[in-house]
Design brief:
This protein is mainly β. Helices cover about 10% and strands about 50% of the residues.
Length: about 140
Amino acid sequence: MTAIAGYSHSLLVATSKSGTYSELYVNSDSFDRAADILDVTDTGNVGYHSRIVGLKDSSFSAEGFWRTGDTGQDIVEAAYENNTELWIKVLPDNIAGNGKKAQVVVESFNMSLDVTSPATFSASLQGTGAVFADDAT
């Protein structure tokens, strides 16, 4: 298997699953999935814990330069302001069909302004259901 460089990926956002996806230009981002682990130990486990998988969750974070008029940033900010869901696609190799997509809500949308640095934004998004394979749509 060939490794891929982090700079070759795409992060895309849309207001609906089958809508038009716009690039969210970022310097760094992460896509995290986790499951609750439930302890079901009882006296029959003879000194060892027994566990099962519970609910699963996903979250996304993104940071980049603030770009006036950037459609991707505008979609994320509007979803935050209007308390609406949006869809996100993560394409690790920038090839449609090779990534993941999920419906999310925006937990936070922030700007950082410093006289010695470029203006930046950051966003935190929380999944609202299952993560799907990208179907190239």
